[in-house]
Amino acid sequence: MGFGGESFKILIILCPSKNTKLIKIKDLFKNLEENCIPKEIFEMEKDDYQRFLTLRRKLMARKIKKYFERL
User: Fold this and answer.
1) Domain spans of the chain?
2) pLDDT tens across 21-44, in order?
3) Is the pTM for the entire model greater than 0.85?
4) Could you give the C-alpha distances from 23 to 6, 17, 65, 68, 69, in angstroms and in order?
């Protein structure tokens, strides 16, 4: 499996399945959010890697800003 798109689409398909030990779909989305992985990852392909990095950088900056505002 490569970066993005197809790999993450497979996760979406498998999460609700009772025959898998993967996490529940809501837990998957929570995990992606906690790790600043953009939701667009499900539509991305390997050529979108730079776009992924740009989106993730913005999410990380927002998360860091929120953290420092709470100090």
Assistant:
1) 5-70
2) 667 778 888 999 999 999 999 888
3) no
4) 18, 10, 29, 31, 32
